[in-house]
Amino acid sequence: MQGFAFRHLLGRIAFLGALWVVLSGLEPKALAVGTVAVPAAVWLSLRLLPGPRHLAVWRALRHLPAFLGASLLGGLDVARRALSPRMPLAPGWVEVPVHLPDGGRVALGAELSLMPGTLAAGTRNDRLLIHLLDVNAGFEDAIPREEAAIAAMIDGEPAPREGG
What we know:
Blueprint: H1 2-24, H2 28-48, H3 57-83, E1 92-97, H4 102-114, E2 118-124, E3 127-132, H5 139-154
Antiparallel strand pairs: 1-3, 2-3
Helix pairs in contact: 1-2, 3-5, 4-5
């Protein structure tokens, strides 16, 4: 178990360190700040998502193109709605059942909030509260897919669904 914990720690350091470099670059000042920020992020991630669940970095990287593609399409949709003379909007709230551990719920909420037209605003029992720009756009179908992707990153298996 101790080997697993050490590999787990090294994996998080590598992932968050690489993420820091991608986001901030290789400037010496950015790297200096990263020497404090990355260990703090590792500590926080261990508090929010302790073992034995772990993040499979390769699964997270495999999900990245789909996330970026969905963000691009969502941004185009929001721009189309904003520039349309009719502004086809139907804002509202939905509650979606979520079967992830607390850290996974945080990750799902953060991912959904980065998607144009959606904002995760919290949880109620085992349900994620999401504000949508258009409640008729079918986001409720996409949210369980994102949940399954995050569950696969954490556990290697999709989250269990109701009735299945």
